[in-house]
Amino acid sequence: MYHSVGDTTDDPYRLTVSPGRLARQLGWLRRRGLRGVSMADLLAARARGGGRNLVGLTFDDGYTDFVDLAVPLLRRHGFGATVFVLPGRLDGENAWDALGPRKRLLGKQGIRVAAATDGIEVGSHGLTHIDLTRADAETLRAEVADSRALLSELTGTDIQGFCYPYGYLDQRVMDAVRDAGYRYACAVDPGPLNGVHALPRIHIGENDTSVRLFLKHRLHRLRRRPVKGA
Hints:
Layout: E1 4-5, E2 16-17, H1 19-31, E3 35-37, H2 39-47, E4 54-56, E5 58-59, H3 64-77, E6 81-85, H4 108-115, E7 120-124, H5 137-155, E8 161-163, H6 171-179, E9 184-186, H7 210-223
Parallel strand pairs: 1-2, 3-4, 5-6, 6-7, 8-9
């Protein structure tokens, strides 16, 4: 689970990784015979009984630096990834991060560029990045179903994946995501929930050196239950 790629000088939430660090992290995966792919490609491979050498790479929020900085590095390594975007904040910024810094979000053209790039999948992060567990029924429907419809129209593709803002979900939210037609959804730590609509992820940031990546990889396998239906 990545977010932004760029300058890490002002990064109060530790959500940014520098291009140099990202390049080293991708190289670490490749040296171990692993290949980064989109979540759709990972789950499709698992459904066929394969995918043991694949790692799902995700980038939340849909910052413009995904297209500008992350995609060239991914292509250099022959990797793919999924970027989760906010069609309700096109060309906007991350106003939900109270401490900043302010970063630009992808607009229509940037999302289309991402969707047209080989190996890159576009998924929904909701419309506006709100805590869905506190949303009323109408707002929840708009954030989940309407965002999928908007992105499908914008990209001309079937939007398969959803990412819960802040990683927050409960049974009601997960059911809404499944009922909206998403084939999978990414969380962070889904707690007691399980299945392809409550996929756990490992946060990766600027401080994750090769040693930390190794430890996170091992500890993740020990802490997580196998995902049902994946």
